[in-house]
Design goal:
Structural class: mainly alpha
Helix content: over 70%
Strand content: under 5%
Length: about 260
Amino acid sequence: AVFINLCGLGLAICAVCLEMSWMSRLLLGAVGIVLAVSSFATGTVLLPVMVLGLVIREQISGRILLIGLWTMLLVFLMFRLHYFSAGVGEGEFHLTGILHYALNYLGGGAVRFATVLSIPVFLFATALLLIALKRLYRESRNAAALWAMIALFSCGAALLTAYGRYDTYGASQAWVIRYGSFASLYWFAVLGAMWSLQERNRLIRNGFKVLVALFIFNSLHFVPQTYDFHMDARVLEKTVLDDWPEVSPEVLSTLYPTDPT
């Protein structure tokens, strides 16, 4: 499902950034929305991501009908998939908690090995990203749109996940391994935007080196954890197949945990 979702993002970026006919842009963007939304509910953030890309490319005025049709498709899919009626917890809305969760989520893409550093490193990277995007905007609006869309998609996934999960599980749940795929997108966007300018700006060049080192170390940190997660899943799969249809309550509680960490 992750790869299907990311394929949707890739098609949406192509629909916004590449030169093509109006109908081709419409169809490519529509397929991207279908793939993203049907794989994960967080894919609903793809539409504002596409609008942002069009704004950066300064093509928004000629694309109102296009955006309208994409919006109608998104609303239709959300009704069909019952996203509007899905529950998100029964507690109060905690803005600070949701933001804390989202920052943990995004920070996990670079410093999961040192969670206390997640927020300061994220803010440092965001400052560098904004500097890079500002410079890129003057040189290549396509490049600026590309990296901005990827970064916003990751941020949107973090916020929507936080909105649905924080009230029940708390901010620490954002560190689960499976969120690394979407969190890493933000850091790809940061490094990609900085890579384009590192030879011409000393601050960006030095910041790029620091973030690359963190990203590599974090990736190595992920390897044994994901391997252990995979092996545990294989053992659980074998247990279910061997015991079927009399699967024990203990195994079922592992498959369907109250706290999915």
